[in-house]
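Fold this complex.
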Amino acid sequence: MSENITIKDIARICGVGVSTVSRAINDDPGINEKTKERILETVRKFRYVPNTSARNLKMTESNTIALIVCGVGNTFFTSMYDDFQNELEKNGYDFLLHSVDNDVNIPAEALRLSKEKRLKGIVFLGGWINPNSKSLLNVNVPYVFCTVSHTIEGPHAPCPTVGIDDIAASKRMVDYLCDMGHKKIAIIAGVEGDMAVAGGRLLGYRKSLEEHGIEVDEDLVFHMKKDIDEFTVENGYVVTKELIASKKEFTAVYCISDLTAIGAYRAIYDAGLKIPDDISVVGFDGIELGDYMNPRITTMVQPRHEMALESVRILLKLISQEEGIADTVFPTELLTRDSVKKIG
Amino acid sequence: MSENITIKDIARICGVGVSTVSRAINDDPGINEKTKERILETVRKFRYVPNTSARNLKMTESNTIALIVCGVGNTFFTSMYDDFQNELEKNGYDFLLHSVDNDVNIPAEALRLSKEKRLKGIVFLGGWINPNSKSLLNVNVPYVFCTVSHTIEGPHAPCPTVGIDDIAASKRMVDYLCDMGHKKIAIIAGVEGDMAVAGGRLLGYRKSLEEHGIEVDEDLVFHMKKDIDEFTVENGYVVTKELIASKKEFTAVYCISDLTAIGAYRAIYDAGLKIPDDISVVGFDGIELGDYMNPRITTMVQPRHEMALESVRILLKLISQEEGIADTVFPTELLTRDSVKKIG
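Structure:
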């Protein structure tokens, strides 16, 4: 909203002159306390950013880079915050972590933040943003997408991405299940229509089955619920409950995140079934917690610390205009632990 | 460091005059590009904050409140970030999340941040800060401690705290184990010397045993490792391994956080033992994840969302000078799930 509101609007709304608004903002002692309060409240309410700040721009903008996170409590991301903060501070930048709820608001929120905070740059972490979204073009500072890659959507967005090849990594995960003899493999995929990493992983699942001559049984493709945060333990739990209740036969569940797999574990325990004796489960991401579950979760490890550092490196290069737009694809690693049984 | 560095120091270090530094900072076009770069690099390196910013103070400081978190990836805290951000933004403030590593740097870091960011206020979340620390007095903006209470250290610090009664809540947890027939109860306490919440919880453990006529066996008091982040799954795992290796007899383990309990679970599984058949385990905090473990973790629930909102409320009152210093103590709730066996 700040981009539309001018000092004249604030003055009009408050029924005072422009100079009075200016005095309120600058805390001039010559202004009535109540009037000042009323004006400042309006300024806050409409998120008015004084244009006059522009003259202090160089001094006040200088140092802040924001990390805009969708899924702020997601363990996969939280383990990267210190990487971002340390790497940015090492390079003389201030670090701002900002949580956003869902993709719809992300470009607008980024725009607001970049104006209000005079940001130098943005790293977007997670979430389901279409990197080709035109509204992002309005964000007038360099930005990088981390853990969001261009695997599905067509043309490249005018920004670099740092991620993995979700399709290939996901395919490898399902290849492993097939190699272990599984043919009836259910998937807990992302919310329906998610064309970001979740979409890539679903595609990898389909490709693997196809290559193994197994027809995809659409009744074994389950999507996370839209009304629960994506990739969470809760979503994995609720959806796996449904999968089990469907009475469809399956020997393995592929959860597209480790947290989702932890939820699936619980649903499987609840049904009185054993992992991996009755049902094999695999996750994705390689979060620390997976190593503490019983049984330890077999997963696909993303090099998250390296991805965080690389995102910062690329952003800083963009800011100093030393580097152009490119996608960085990190390798993943299949980590076989104890949650898959060889069958057949 | 910024508080000691002046524009004169920067000029001396760069071998230029004060006015040249000033021109570099203000991006005056009349300055040589290379000289400017060199000066700005020095400014960044020494985290020099231009004093001249003071004149723009009212305009640039206006809206930011920082959440300084010790243990940024701790699930108990991450589930509160959105509460803080939403409540602050609802009140017209910007939200800045800042991670700190350990108590040693917290007051200095808070001071640096409050100067650089022109903060309006600070909420400290977690960590092992002595709220009576004199160095905190240097922080010249209002601040509140959240999840850190004055249960152990003597006189009240000049700031409000929002927390629980760690001693009483912890005692209640151990009372429950005693009521379930346990007499040999090990504790995974905080790092040695932690006099914050961890210290309070250890004291509650001692009080409960004493009241139940059970002599505290110091060989069953285990402390988290100093070289691993406190309250983490990893710390719980490593220390419970040691507990089991000690061959001391015990029927229950009280972990002072749920994450620690998840680590303890793994160490117990590793030893081929069953929970709760062989060993009962309880946690503390009431994080969502505890409900997904197998068996579900019996715990003491802290009303973390309410605590976050109350911290913001109190801080805003402090800022507007409507309220004085007070400690807010929230009630906790014993949540009995499936990880404790009745014995004897």
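The CA atoms of residues 298 and 337 of chain A lie 5 Å apart.
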